[in-house]
Each structure stands twice: as C-alpha cells, then as structure tokens.
Amino acid sequence: MKFTTKSMPGLEVVTGVILAGGAGTRLKAVVSDRPKVLAPVGGRPFLAYLLDQLARAGIKEVVLCTGYQAEMIEAALGDRYQSLNLKYSREEKPLGTGGALRLALPHCASDPILAMNGDSFIDADLTAFWSWFAPRDRNAGLLLTKVRDTRRYGSVQVREDGLILGFAEKSAAFGPGWINAGVYILRKHVLSLIPLGKPYSLERELFPALAGKNLYGFPVTGKFIDIGTPESYLEAEKFFGKGGG
C-alpha cells in the first residue's frame, strides 16, 4: 500500500522482523555458549538494543526469525519485550537471510515490513526512514551508511536520487563508500518471489536482482557496528556505552 503524506500512519502499523537465526561461527572464540544475537554487551544481550530501537520507533509487533539455538532465544525473551509483542518464525535448517524472511511472511501482519539484521546496529531514525519510504511507490528501501573502509562489507552504488544501481563485492581495495546498514523496508510481493524452504540470500541474490528496478537507498550518518567478528564484538561495549543505542 502507498500512503499520502496526510494519510500516512506511523510505524505502529508496521511489523518489525529481526533476522536472528545465525550461528555466529566467527564469534565462537569469544561467545561459544549462545546464539550470536544473545552475545552479552554491557550486561545485556545484543538483541535487546535492536528491540529497544524498534520500540522507540513505535513498532508494536516483532517477529524473530530464529534458527540456531532458537529455544534459547525464545526462553530468554518470551512473548513480550517492554511494549513489543514478540512472535517467532523458526527455521529447521539454515535458510539464509532471504529464506528466513520468506518463511516468516505468514507471521507478518503488515505490508510492507521493516526488517533488520540481528548482528548489526545503526543509530538511525527509523521513523524518518519510514516517512521517506511510505508515500512513494517503491518495492524496497535500504538504510545506507558511509564507512571509511568498505573492504569488509562491499559497497553500494547509488544514484543522486537514491536509486541503487548495483553492489560491489568485498575486495582487498581500501577506500570509503556507502554500505548496506542492515535495515530494510520490504514489500511482501517482493519477498513472495523468494522460493519457500530453500536457502536464499537478500544480500547476494535478492538485492542485486532488484538493483536499478525500484530499489532505493536512504543514507544516514549514525554510528554503525557489526558484531560478526571477535574484533568488532569487543568494540560493542564502548559503542553502546557512548550513546550508540
């Protein structure tokens, strides 16, 4: 559904989805007894910072896409977190980011949905992201952030009007650029194209296929962290201790 500025509701009508199924293989050296999203940061699970962000934005319902040690996540959070109602979509085998979202679609009441990676955090205004996306006829929107070194992430080529033209793979070449910050607004008809029950990647399959075709980026300047490696995970304590979340 496309809204006009006057009729546009807030994020309270949007289902939030967090991709929380990863095993965190690279983190095993420092976090070996729990799934990556429950890695402790400042005495709290990393996932709590994402849930706090969604709650502050006004979202009321969140679906957690779980997989590895799913029962530990469900036991830790239950069916409610502060003002959020929590639901779970559990994959029985690894489905990748796209496959997990496709499996979760029946649990999502809204169209579009707001989805986020469970192992990264961008200090961004989600209501501004929604206000930018909702009145426009777009299939998908990605939060983009600029980093000094894109080698670890790969980069996003984006036109002045925000149209995403393509994605560059990770490379050994040092340099600044825009990267995918791991937060998306996605319409259901796009996600329904993903094959059900099969591994599928948003980053490597869906988004490159949509590039140049109604896929837009929303640039933000907030602090960004990804806890996917032991080195970056160890930086998370300082990140959230200085206003990152």
* Ends distance: 31 Å
* Structural category: alpha/beta
Structure annotation, total helices: 7
Quaternary structure classification: single chain
The rounded Rg comes to 17 Å
Q: What letter string, H or E per element, gives the SSE order?
A: EEEHEHEEHEEHEEEEHHEEH
Poorly predicted parts: none
- Major beta sheet, specifics? 8 strands, mixed
Q: Name the helicity range.
A: 25-40%
- Average pLDDT number: 91
Going across the biggest sheet, name each strand in turn.
5-6-4-1-7-12-9-13
Give the DSSP E fraction (strand runs of 2 or more residues): 25-35%
Shape: globular
Total beta strand runs? 14
Concise overview:
With 245 residues, the protein is of the alpha/beta class. The protein has helices at residues 46-57, 70-77, 96-104, 126-133, 188-191, 202-210, 230-241; strands at residues 15-20, 40-41, 44-45, 61-66, 80-81, 84-90, 113-117, 120-122, 140-147, 155-158, 164-168, 177-186, 215-220, 224-226.
